[in-house]
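Lab meeting notes turned into a lecture example. A postdoc, R.K., suggested we walk through two folding results consecutively so the class can see how the record format repeats. The first protein's sequence and structure tokens come next.
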Amino acid sequence: MDLREGDFDAFFQAPFDAYGQGTPYVSPMRSDLRRFYAAGVNPLFANAADFSFFTVHRDGEVIGRIGAHVHAASNALYKTNTAYFAYFDCADDSEAAKTLLGAAENWARQRGFDTIAGNFNLTAMQQIGVTTDGFDGVPYVDQVYSPPHIARLLAENGYEAYFPMRTFEVDLEKFDPTTMLGPKQQDILNSPDWKFAQVTRATIPQRLEDARQLLNSGFGHNPMFVPLTAEEFEFQAKELKWIIDPRITSVIHYKGEPAAIALVIPDLNPFIRATKSRISWSTPWHFLVNRLKRTRALVVYASVREDLHARGVMSAMMVNLLPIMRAAGYRQLGVTWVWDENAGSIRLMEHLNAKPLHRNHLFRKALI
């Protein structure tokens, strides 16, 4: 068994070799993974001491990986002393898992942290968790997926599951959006105070700034959420400018100010899988094929400004948006994840007749 630190080529290759063919898992693009782990490029990491990554090899073959990092703003905001692991992908191999997790734990201990938790996969949209059920569900882009043995290996190494979440899927062909239309929603759709802000290629930069402000306002009281700076959001969401379908992202303004957003993107996983997560001469062709054939979209997040909660705003937006999505050729709508105790979001899933797709948890371990 050979443990290596900082071998990026092996780090990228690990899940392909560990999981083999036929897995629902889809790797991030190699270029994205590289810039996530780049000090001074990723605003989360002021210097190289803020993160590391490890791979484990047997007989010259990479069979697993893990990243370790700190989120200083989160520890400062919540008065915690936690390090995080990310991208824990490993063959069903107890020795390999123990070696990888031990490496991340030692990295954290050496820096004085008392807890380690994950997966936290370094995206603005909080791509978090480990899959614990629903393993047959085909993941959408930005949804975390891991095979059944990952949660078991974590438990074997003393990690406890917490923060239960679910991903969801809506069948747009069967759902009738008018079932969500009540008096509050009708008032919003009829009022001149509420106006849908145009999303076009020219307005996407402003709409993305709306998206950041609304994320910070609407999620401000959610556990573990850390407000994003403009720099952080731009770094982690700038690719949306190229992949967004303006027809299916919706922003509504109230009296001229951003009020709510449903940030929706086409599902890119078929494209990413076709490219094997690498940019090459064939990438534009694969992107075009996916664009012509896409029928799935993903709600990256939906957020209503804090002072407008409980007024039926998101339901009104969905009444307007879902028929547009269906007319644009989309047939299924995924949702990244919803915490079990987020009553408002769970209620929205019920109103959408959304079906659970995966069960996810965070995992943590005390280091002292």
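The second example is placed directly after the first for contrast:
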Amino acid sequence: MIEFKGSHFERDVILLAVRWYVAYPISYRQLEEMMAEHGVEVDHATLNRWVLKYVPLLEREFRIRKLPVGPSWRMDETYVRVKGAWKYLYRAVDKAGATVDFLLTAKRDRKAALRFLRKAIKGSGTPDKITIDKSGANTAAISSHNAELEAVIVIRQIKYLNNIVEQDHRAIKRLVRPMLGFKSFRSAAVTLAGIELMHMIRKDQLQTTGEVCPARQFYSLAG
């Protein structure tokens, strides 16, 4: 159960604003206008604070109820601009397209790729195989993991098999583009987590009882 005590706004208003921001390609100023059209006067700075405060709590609840993924992963990274500089969003999906995990990193190297791999394995278990592009960093990261833990994750470098994760990047980038760049690494990481959260819900990765629309699934995370 997520607490909303101390806010001047009702729980449903906060959740609506947070969901709109992470679900659709809009800026905070556009969201401010949309809320005003629905009779809610709230400035863009407050909307930003809501996203930064509640997305981590909603993501935590989602991970408790996240459905398992398959043992064959596709791993890749894409670029995100933060304070005018490019940062790297590592992501993996299984062969059916379900999101395994994601991680925003400052660098694109073996250490960053290994951090992501460990996070993904901690949340979803060790895969049988991982398909990557020709990235030396990703190859080194998986090889390091195998050597350190005596694991036997098979590394595959088959371009067409990685198309599914590259296409999945586009769904995330489409929402990031109107946000006009992130002002801090933390803001970028939290916002991307919210976008990924809504993206996973749309891919039916949340345990539910019966047919529930994505919006209701999102709100159910608050308890």
